[in-house]
Design a protein that fits this description.
Blueprint (H helix, E strand, L loop, with lengths): L10 H13 L3 H13 L5 H8 L3 H14 L21 H13 L4 H12 L7 H12 L16 H13 L8 H13 L17
Helix pairs in contact: 1-2, 2-4, 3-4, 5-6
Amino acid sequence: MGKTKTIELTAEQRTAVEHGYRKGKSHTFRLRCQMVLLKSEKRSSLEVSEILGCCEIVINRWLNRYEEEGVKGLETRTGRGRKPKLSTQNPLHLQTVKAEIAKHPQSVKTVIAKLEEELNLAMHRSELFLAQMEKWMKKDLYIFFLPRYSPHLNKAEIYWRKAKYEWLKPADYGSFSKFKKKIYHIFDQIGLEYKVAFKELHSLT
């Protein structure tokens, strides 16, 4: 068995990585910070992969990036990630949407079909709901569709995010039984020891 590759963190480095782990803006960035913290505990990449549910190659790649660039290197570089198919920041998209609404102000189904065709989108909606939308549009009531997956609007997702990135500590991942015990404790104490200020969460989304 080869020697486990670990990383030594100074107090300053650990503070920076822990801050990223708890306060990072994206899930992927927080996950990468957690990788570094777990590896600093002299864990093998296999152990970390089992805890985080990702492969050893990914863990080693981000560990190398951290060693080369520091915590900044754990961020997703500009140009990466899937681009939204329909964006309010895209002038062509806005122009197309406005033009189709102007052409078919009383038929939302026609507008959606045209957008799907011209912008290569997939906007599946039930016939019953679309029929109601046409009636609402006649009364100047327009529906704004939320993203298909909106974890920031789901209370369960918010509690889990807080548990994962703030309430759980790296030491709680020492064993499955220890992890399970802490999870039960956290969710048993929601509203008592562990609280979420929902009115403040808009600044995090």
